[in-house]
User: What shape does this take?
Amino acid sequence: MKLKTILMAGAASAMMTSAALATDLTIVSWGGAYSNSQNEAYHKPYMAQNPDVTIINDESSAEAVAKLRAMNEAGNITWDLVDVLASDAIRLCDEGLAQEIDFDKELAPAPDGTPASEDFGDLIVADCFIPEIVYSTTFGYRTDNEAWKGKEPDDICDVFDLEAFPGKRALEKRPINNMEWALMCDGVAKEDIYDVLETDEGVARALAKLDTIKDQTVWWSAGAETPQLLADGEVAIGSTYNGRLFSLIEEQKQPVKILWDAQVFDLDGWIVPAGLSDERKAAVMDYLKFATDTQRLADQAKYISYGPARKSSAPLVGKHATLGIEMAPHMPTDPANAKNTFLYNYEWWADYRDDLDAKFQAWLSK
Amino acid sequence: MSALPAYASTGQRAWHYSFRIICGLIFFFLIFPILVILPLSFNAQNFFTFTPQMLALDPAGYSLKHYEDFFTNPDWQQALRNSFAIAPVATLLATSFGTLAAIGLSQSHVPYRSAIMAILISPMIVPLIISAAGMYFFYSRIGLQGTYVGVVLAHAALGTPFVIITVTATLVGFDRSLVRAAASLGANPVTTFFKVQMPLIIPGVVSGALFAFITSFDEVVVVLFLGSAGQKTLPWQMFTGLREQISPTILAVASLMVAISIILLTVLELLRRRSERLRGLTPS
Amino acid sequence: MNMQPQSDPQVLTTRDGTPLKVSLAKALRREKLRSLALIAPLLIFILVTFAAPIADMLFRSVENGIVENTLPKTVNALSDWDVTSSQLPGEPVYKALYEDLKVATEEKTHTRLGSRLNYEASGMSSLFRKTGRRIKRMDEAGPFAEQFIDIDKDWGDLATWRLLKRYAPKYTPGYFLNAADAQLTADGIAMKPANERIYLLLFARTLFLSLTITLCCLLLGYPIAFLLASLPLRSANLLMILVLLPFWTSLLVRTSAWKVLLQQEGVINDFLVWIGVIGDASRLVMINNKTGTIIAMTHILLPFMILPLFSVMKTISPTYVRAAKSLGATDWTAFWRVYFPQTVPGIGAGAILVFILAIGYYITPELVGGTDGIFISNRIAYHISSSLNWGLAAALGVILLGAVLLLFYVYDKIVGIDNVKLG
Assistant: This one.
């Protein structure tokens, strides 16, 4: 079945590109370890099957939304496929900069025949967005902290507890996640958080809670910062992406542990820019069908500790390619880690992002 | 200040030495951050941290792996190639246009001189973020965003003010009667330019070119906006390195660049001495 | 033509009989043309590659065609509606909105308008997204007002319509108002609520920090320039390499180096703890705040102060100071009354150069500035690459550029642009 799919896909792409014509695919991603995992799990096997395709890597995902908009204004789209966060994908979809995807028609079904739209399930948060991985933003803390007297944080609210857990914190320099955590620890029930945050009092309440640790906080804006700060001992506890913490702990062997409580799930995945020619679109969709199938998503988890977005991929997750350790326990979606989780509300943030960001930055600057 | 006269009083003596110490401290402030990156580039760990082993001068704390990474990693090598493909061409454009314009501006009667000068200097004055944003929107519209030509043109524009400033400065000391003499002896303007003017202003041109080169070679904001994967330069690679994957490879690259800077500065100094000899000025 | 001069012996002529005046004027014109011809290539180059992009960007700060382009009929129908009325617009407006949104949904431009209006009021983004999804199922016969309010009650809210009406014109002062922490409301221009004000504070901080950095550069640069100017040329040139080396080391690297030095577990704190000046528990916080920005940027901009100061001091003849001393002035008086005034042009040149460069800085404050050490440029970058509010970014840019150009004008008056020297 799988072989047949591959053969058919190969034949189709060969026909489309009329055999002799080589295809260049410009694929945009984040760079670093993440691009590397995509390269190993998707690009290399795909290019091995389709020798006439060359994949060019562009590491501009951080600027992707702005660049896509500029390209669209100019009517000259130079990218074929872009890896973005779900919230950015929604924005791109809203701006008409990304193509809508027919999940069942254009993507491979699960091995047991479950259509793609069911296999991805709730993770399809926008019509243009094909989820790839589930990652989480969570806290890492140093284990050699004498002032903590042998205690270790096991509750998100320990982040706000400067008495039991003194030391500097690292938080992201934006309202998303921080506001939710603050309200959660200020006694707001999980399901009410966004209703509270919609009001001015709610925002004030969240900021007041953050005020209690403000002068002990280092604010980060790029993914590599918290691991560096933890490794230097510059902060005692800090939020970052779980994959960064995995690499810090397992690859760099730093004395750090993960606090999984109230980790916030987020998605990262692909969008296809709007306005591609039919020929280029066909080439991209062929790649996408391959790169988002059950096996490929499971393969990616060999290189980085992010959970595959398809339900059918989870049982296939194996060992790390070089470290040889079992990857399943390091996935944010592993039941032991996912006792208390939070999926942020994309629709809500699409509406309130501009407003809350202004308030949050104003608060930060004071 | 250069030497303390024999009759200096104790107060003068004290001031003389304390002034030297103050200057020494300021030089230390200038140079120390650059010295600090050298040992860190030999760090055996993947962080910008002085590890206990490093402080104990334990050889195990040091390694050449970041240099090895730089020379073997295709990303860094590609970035290096791109930087050397962009900077020299941008420098050539900036230097040739800039030198011509500086000569034009140094003539005695130039209409709207200060207005023209203001426009030509503007790339140095306009905040970089504004230049980058403007070029980004505009170049997207005319199809130059994400192209090699686009980045080269932008870098050339940013480099020209330096060429104009340095060449104009050499032209201030230029004796115009030499040109008249050449003309009266029958040389046409082109011959006069290459045989008389050029040899004398060449130090200004070279130093302007070096400034233009370093402007392009060290530029990150504009290339981040204007470039695409094909134009990723060294500073861009360093910037993503700092944001996405902190690695002392950046420091290894920086150390190599410091070494190159020292070579370039020495060349510049030798050129200056040569020009002073030519102009008949002897070092005092 | 040659006749007349000959008949008038008062007029000097050249050998071929042209009046000298005419001939000189001709030569002057030729010289002017030649110099312009030399300048032209660069001038055209800069105008096309640099000035045009800047002008293009500045235009975005007032441009607002999106509302009219997306909802042409609605804008037209709304022109009769009084923005101050307490009545919702009539059925024809809702009908026009239906027709416009039907087209916009086909072309997928309705959500783009939603994101644009969301900068002004939260909730617009989802209002347009939601309405777009339902528009196909609406009854074409009407009544439209009722159906729209049924989709989302915001269509029955006066605030929504007032917002649409306010932002209907092709050009808007809205972005500039936002850049000054104000906004367009139903009652005209008003300040934003206190918890959203940020830009005026950032402009003030940018000015204050730039001034501080300029002052630090002057304090550190003056002695160095003085030393370099008074040393023999050869040793001065060697020391000059110490000034130029940091100047030529990548900005990113120098900023990272300061991170390594200044952080709490960093080199300086470690050293201070080691020699016992401070305790291990009371390490100094020198980074991710104003201090970090000031130190790192002073280091980065110091050469721009030293170079112009040095070039001015080099031209000051030592005889003046000697004369003053021989007339009985003390060292201090000779310096302060005779030498220092002559260096003022250099101070002016260096200070304004440093100030202009500092005010537009972006990378260094981003990396070491934390929360209270960031500049207005950081917000401009944020609006360009993250929030996509390019109009606001452009408006902030215009204000910043205006400030810089004003300074540049002052600079030109004080020192003249061609008196800048770079070593």
Q: What stands out?
A: The interface with chain C takes residues 62-63, 65-66, 69, 91, 93-96, 168, 173, 200, 203-204, 218-219, 221, 232-234, 347, 350-355, 357-359, 361-365 of chain A (CB under 8 Å). The longest helix of chain A spans residues 346-365. The first strand of chain A starts at residue 23 and ends at 28. DSSP finds 14 helices and ten strands in chain A.
